[in-house]
Amino acid sequence: MEHRIWNPRWECASRDEKNDVQLARLKRIVEYCYERVPFYKKKFDEMGLRPEHIKTLKDVRLLPFTTADDLKDNYPFGMFAVPKKEIVRIHGSSGTTGKPKIVGYTKNDLDNWTECLARVITAAGVTSDDTTQISFGYGLFTGGFGLHYGMERVGAMVVPLSSGNTDRQIMLMQDFQSTVLVATPSYALYLAEAIEKKGVDKDSIKLRLALFGGEGHTEEMRAKIEKSLGILATENYGLSEIGGPGFSGECFLKKGLHIAEDHFLPEIIDPDTLKPLETGEKGELVVTTLTKEGFPMLRYRTRDITWLVDEPCGCGRTSMRMAKVQGRTDDMMVIRGVNVFPSQIESVIMSVKEVEPFYEIIVTTENYLDRIEVRTEFSDASLLDDYNKLEKLQGKIRHKLKSVLNIDAKVTLVTPGTLPRFEGKGKRVIDKRTHK
Ligand code: DLL
Questions:
Q1: Given a cut of 60, is residue 1 above it in pLDDT?
Q2: When you count CB atoms within 10 A of the terminal residue's CB, does the N or C end of the chain come out lower?
Q3: Residue among 237, 250, 287 whose CB has most ligand 1 atoms within 8 A, to mutate
Q4: Is the CB–ligand 1 distance for residue 27 below 6 Å?
Q5: Maximum distance among all alpha carbons in the chain?
Q6: Do the Cβ atoms of 333 and 340 come closer than 8 Å?
Q7: Closest ligand 1 atom, residue 95 Cα
Q8: Could you tell me which residues come within 8 angstroms of residue 57 by beta carbon, excluding any fewer than 6 positions away?
Q9: In 3-state terms, what secondary structure has residue 228?
Q10: Model-level pTM greater than 0.85?
Q11: Nearest to residue 335, comparing CAs of 374, 370, 361?
């Protein structure tokens, strides 16, 4: 198979070359923000900081952070750097409650965004021979439109199905002989299950690749979906605040997500002390956009936990990579003093062969203590008639959670098909605690 690099000029540039362009762009964007965004001007003035203080790349550390609250406070258009007239597209965060975080794109922003996606898409192995089914929601969510335009730029045939209506998705996937699926891993899992349940002839499905994004998933979960759909799945990452997907994506080697360093400057910080961490150290990803005109961001705190890898990849790209996101700082649950990420529970569940890859985590307070319940579906329906076996399996999972994560969880096994399935991003943690 041919493995193309969309833009070798930038994706294979030397570290020096990249640092030079990053520094020039950093200086320019800092000045631009200072002049055009009152929020930044005020912050700089309060700190006694002037754009000319930025002399090296490390000086990015002098800049103030930007947080989700800053976006909220300036809702909807307060942080735009150009008049509304120059904005040609709006997108926003996918949260379902409260006001969305709104971001705007100029014509150039859309062009750069599409370029970044063309890189991610090509790195995943998509070519102009592919037919791609886009099962991300189209709308304020950046996933649908972002991947859509990127696919078109690469020359793939786009089937813009959006999410939901699973039977129809399967029918059209067969009729159009789709070769690529773009979806959240949760939706891909749902689709895979539906294909299985309907008894669809596997030979009538021509999928070979999937591009997952919009949420994390464990390697174990990825392996299950890959096996069930008979595909290779790569993942890509981004967030609305920095423009959506296109920030980073895996190549077919799946050894970290390649970052578009000519458009973004990544940093890792300690989320508690806010101190910068070195390449390879795990912490919170912070991103400065280097080329955005409509909605530039200086040191945006993503809340996503990862680390950076600065070594050339076997695919030929030299880009800085980020490790698969380990979780969000705000997803971490402290259960009776033990830090637990939902992804760790997912790993344990995925390693138990007698259960389905569906689960739910319910956290409550009982007598002032945190209590965690993990619900998952047993695979073998005949277990319903055998209480002893069911109890034994429950005990086995409970023991595994205890030995791997050191948490004492209640494990509830439920009938196959009863836990929620998701058409977009999954929501598997229900935290009912009064004090978190
Ligand atoms: O989810 C952008 C996107 C769409 C990325 C499609 C990739 C593909 P938001 O709705 O603003 O934007 O949500 C951003 O989703 O901070 C992460 O916590 C999470 N996220 C996105 N991609 C990944 C990933 C889009 N590959 C938030 N792994 C981010 C883990 C991810 N988490």
A1: no
A2: N
A3: 237
A4: no
A5: 74
A6: yes
A7: 10
A8: 19, 22, 23, 26, 265
A9: helix
A10: yes
A11: 370
